[in-house]
Design brief:
The chain has 490 residues and is an alpha/beta fold. It has 18 helices and 15 strands. Strand 6, helix 8 and strand 7 form a beta-alpha-beta unit. Helix 1 packs parallel to helix 7, helix 5 runs parallel beside helix 6 and helix 9 packs across helix 10. It starts with 5 loop residues before the first helix and ends with a helix.
Amino acid sequence: MLLYDKDLLSVQEVRELVEHAKTAQKELAEKTQAQVDQIVKSIADAGVRNAKRLGQLAHDETGFGIASDKVIKNIFGSKGVYERIKDMKTVGVIKRDEAAGTYAVAVPVGVIAGLIPSTNPTSTVFYKAEIAIKAGNAIVFSPHPNALKCILETVKVIRQAIVEAGGHEDLVSCISLPTIQSTDVLMSHPDTSLILATGGSAMVRAAYSSGTPAIGVGPGNGPAYIERSADIHKAVKCIMDSKTFDNGTICASEQSVICDDDMKEAVQNEMKKQGAYFLNEQEREQLGNFILRSNGTMNPMIVGKSVQVIAELAGLSVPKDIRVLVAEETGVGRGHPYSNEKLAPILGFYTAPDYRKVCERCCEVLYYEGAGHTFIIHTENQEIVDYFAHRVPVSRFVVNSPGALGGIGASTGLMPALTLGCGAVGGSATSENVGPEQLYNLRYVAVGKKSLEEIRREAGEIELKPEAVNLDAKQIDEVVRRIINQLEAI
């Protein structure tokens, strides 16, 4: 029987892809660490070779971001990730505890479902393919429909690189007919062992409700605090560089700037010098009505667009050399659009009386949206760092670095990643920058150390020592009497 219905065809495709991936993964599980590493290296090298072409393809297809920045992200997602994971031991015994008599064996989870967003499509494919294979798994991608062509082309490059390194090309594959049904089937397929979800909140919620173990991430909405000890020029440069990198499509980028009340003028003047445009009250309201939809979610029309495009869409007139649009904000939540995540060169601007009130405001912003994700601070005061580090509900706390690049591990020592866990506070299964270590299980082998008789004897010794349980002789007599009564009742 021939199938013509797109939904049915996509579901059938998923079933075949998972079946082939399962076969390829079993073959990979028999390879040595050196053989696995060679496959990952081949993918990384292919990523560098094709970074420019795929970056341009992603930009042309999605209309998001800046092509040259997407090239950098492709190199980061391939070579940058590889350099961090290349020496990780992920095959066989990976740790021992001689004193405890235990050791742990890495066990691949199997077939992973990889959900790919349209904001960072090609770079995320390289990154997820590398960490999945490094951990001994196969991965089947569900692409965002708006980035289908560039994702398929990236997968083609990766499959060729795998074959060149002696691996099975079906270790990495991709749905070519993406539908809601195909993604649902991929996530709930009995041979799908784990979902690695990067995308919108709705997609992540679907992953967690699929019945399959999932690692998903929530929205970013990171505030950036310029504290009074900071070099204002350097701090503003970091923020502007971060917010304009690929037109703000990285979720760890700054979404608002906050400073003490008495620093407001100095910070705003420096931001203006570096290309920020502060909206007047009418412009602020006009853009605010455009950047969010009626249901309170971000308008996709602003995502990854330049200031000039956004201004034109919103009916604003701004100078041509403006890099970032800034709106002063006084509240958080519905009715305060600049307190939301904005994956575009748009910032909210807050002030507060002192660092304690700043911390309260930052927590308020994050609990409204972005809990568990990223916070950025510019300061030379370690005590201030410690104060905020103990209070703000985030998994990434970036100090004196651009939020976008610092959060993903490009300008900091964090694990290079494009899937950023938000921990329990953000509804995520992990708070880590996701790497190979989150994509395998550990099988613990434990040698017997005690017999049952020894355990009973030790337990008895503890019961008979009054000081061990902090009881006096009269209390012990009462406990013994109760035990005897219970035994007689039996």
